[in-house]
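Running co-folding for glutathione.
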Amino acid sequence: MTTLYTMPGTCSLAPNIAVAWLDAPVEIHNMTYGDHKNDDYLAINSKGKVPALRFDDGDVLTEAAAILAWLGAAHGKEGYARDTRLGRKEAEALSFMTSEVHAAYGGHFAPKSLADSAAAQREVKRKTYETLGNHYERINGVLNDNGGEWYLGQRSFADTFLYVLTRWIEQTPLSISDYSALKAHRARMEADEGVRLALKRQDMELVG
Ligand SMILES: N[C@@H](CCC(=O)N[C@@H](CS)C(=O)NCC(=O)O)C(=O)O
């Protein structure tokens, strides 16, 4: 069976939620933190990161946005079609959230990879939270402009990744209370059965 590799707390929650929403025939293999650097997993994804999707024939797909695109193409029902305005905007939103917002979290998760001295790392973190604040401001605005319920006006996979980002904000000095649309979106996601199933499969709790 096609297998999605996940780890608690990580962005692999986004495709995990998508699997639950689609009821797709994909097994969730939730690893313990650290197992992603073991030889067995490095043979699957030499980047040593999650998510990764392994197909029956051994082929492997990595990168959250690519996995979400494949899930939509292979198992999508109405509302997940690609050749629609929603499909195009979904691809745009997922590219932005992964390549800009997630990437900006590098300064929070791994400041040592960006600067050597303790002082320089503090500076990296300060700039990181400034950048993240701007990103959250922007996505809070997009959500508001689209009616405030779903990121693109109707439910899409953009909401799965947005949920990851609204959880991660708790690890930073930023406050979800400063982004009222994002706060409401997080609560809406946490009331969703598919989200709750994905959290359970990934050994994660609601933020509340
Ligand atoms: N560009 C990748 C990023 C994947 C990524 O950074 N995954 C993180 C979890 S959110 C990870 O596996 N980190 C473990 C590590 O770097 O040791 C994607 O969008 O899928």
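Result summary
Strands lie at 2-6, 26-30, 52-54, 60-62.
The first helix runs from residue 13 to 22.
Job closed.
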